[in-house]
Amino acid sequence: MHFLQNDKHTRRAxxxxxxxxxxxxxxxxxxxxxxxxxDAAAFDATDYKALVCVFMVGGNDxxxxxxxxxxxxxxxxxxxxxxxxxxxxxxxxxxxxxxxLTRLDPTxxxxxxxxxxxxxxxxxxxxxxxxxxxxxxxxxxPLVMPLTRQQYNAGNSLLYPVPPKLFSHNDQQxxxxxxxxxxxxxxWGGHLGDLALSSNTERALTxxxxxxxxxxxxxQSARPYGISTxxxxxxxxxxxxxxxxxxxxxxxxxxxxxxxxxxxxNEYNLVTARAVSxxxxxxxxxxxxxxxxxxxxxxxxxxxxxxxxxMVARMIAARNTLGNRRQVFFVTMGGFDLHDNLIPNQxxxxxxxxxxxxxxxxxxxxxxxxxxxxxxxASDFGRTLTSNGDGSDHGWGGHHFIVxxxxxxxxxxxxxxxVSVTNSTTDANDQWHVGQGxxxxxxxxxxxxxxxxxxxxxxxxxxxxxxxxxxxxxxxDYPLDLGFMx
Length: 486
Prior knowledge:
12 strands; alpha/beta; two-stranded antiparallel ribbon; disordered N terminus; ten-stranded mixed beta sheet; 35% helix
């Protein structure tokens, strides 16, 4: 389902480059035709831009991240989560008074007097929001098509399909990244990379992961380049003597770099050769932008996400040296599956997320590329509004952040859901809950991703080839452009 659709990339571009396609040949392998299509697409890459996906692994608790703050909504939140008298903390509810320093002050107030604050540990990110460098997308999650609570409750998957294997960690992580459950071979970040390959001198560095392999960064032609927080990953066996023997090192190099007749062996060696070639280029480029440089001084120590984002910032600093105009990055942060100990553990996580994103934005400002770099959050799913005693359980929709100089910040996007746990079809006032306070998303991942993709340079005619469900959305209730990018 998530392969590039050639008719979407694009008829106009196809006709313009028909001669080149004739040379390519319809009988050639699909991957080669797709690569040629990427070269011919309407993709706009005249300047530098980077997208940075910050994935919170485990399913982040939305209700204690972007916390409802106005008295009426807070009182309902507190009652559901077991708060104390006088709007104090209790159960898994945060005290209202602790939210004063992270209250969000949007340029345009939300309807009905709704107000939000961030988790008390997120002072940095609250500051970015209130200064206009960050925005919040409310209640976003995977959808196959627009869906009401009544349609969901009907349980007719033929008429009203829902994402497969809802509430499953691995599957929902994959659906967020690729529109397919666990086992997906490609993702929408990788398909952005497919379109961007021809814009970059070092094509191997179009999609860069500082967190291992991911479906998100894999395209038809684009492949994720893995890098560590300390730099390019070396293959020790071909860079230094093995067991003290130069002969063994030479033999290893021949084994992993020579051309092979077996297609799988040869492909493995091609990947290895690419890694060896890229390692030297990346190491040399990063040496010009050391971690000690003043542009990276805001990153805190002892913060794994900050270490990953610091490496992303250094790679962005090296963009001209490496000849890159478009890049997609992927970083992760784990620990969000908080069925227990939600209050203490999420405080640590939210503090690390906030300080890492704040430092990353500061680095892009120092590098002069703040309006060229956009970071955004994603997660398996949100969680239940109800407590299971000491935490919350798997949910669906959640609230997410977009950070950068090109973001139309100091604003909320999407629909603010009521604070409720109902899934009753008779409650007309609540369309966005499906039991235990699980949010039925009012914005799809495809809309969220499509808005980022358009800013990245993807032509509107190419979007449905990257995001297969996007064509089912549109109109005022489900706009294709959510508006959070300038």
